Amino acid sequence: MDHLKETRIDGETAYNGRFLKVERDRIRLPDGAVTTREFIRHPGAVVILPLLDDGRVLLERQFRYPNDRVFIEFPAGKIDPGEDHLACAKRELAEETGYTARDWQFVCTIHNAIAYSDEHLELFLARGLVAGQARLDEGEFLETFTVTVPELLDLVRRGEITDVKTIIGSFWLEKILAGSWAPAAV
């Protein structure tokens, strides 16, 4: 695969924010030509597929400023520097929904914006949920609700769920519950 590799020559940080960084690199293409690549550095995030004992799925509604609308999503959150991915998933589930889970399984890693970001999302299935009190971050506003898996898939089909991590998680959840795919124990 070396014949496809692009090689960094040098670069700079074009923007350094609290959360995201934009890098501008000069690179050498496989044919020897030189060009630039601009991309976002992202710390990564976790996504939780919370499955209640009755088979219902816990979801969130949250306003997302860049798209100026409320989205339906699985609980998710940014991985802090040096934070274990599973520890982050447990923290985010408790903070956003108040729930804790007795059983955790790793589902997969996805890269949701490969052309312009190094962001990766670590998906976890959470079962054996126990309700508690949410502890939202300052400035975070969301509401939770539950649906059945068929209702979840119908929300995707009708275009009411357009968030890629939630769509992918929904399809994984369908396969897991059908016994076709098995997540890994953690």
TrEMBL record:
Reaction(s) the record says it catalyses: GDP-alpha-D-mannose + H2O = alpha-D-mannose 1-phosphate + GMP + 2 H(+)
Cofactor: Mg(2+)
InterPro entries: NUDIX_hydrolase-like_dom_sf, NUDIX_hydrolase_CS, NUDIX_hydrolase_dom
GO molecular function: hydrolase activity
Domain of life: Bacteria
Pfam families: NUDIX
Domain Nudix hydrolase intervals: 40-169
Keyword Amino-acid biosynthesis annotated: no
PROSITE patterns in the record: NUDIX, NUDIX_BOX
UniProtKB keywords: Hydrolase
Family, per entry: Belongs to the Nudix hydrolase family. NudK subfamily.
The protein's name in its UniProt record: GDP-mannose pyrophosphatase
Source organism phylogeny: Bacteria, Pseudomonadati, Pseudomonadota, Betaproteobacteria, Burkholderiales
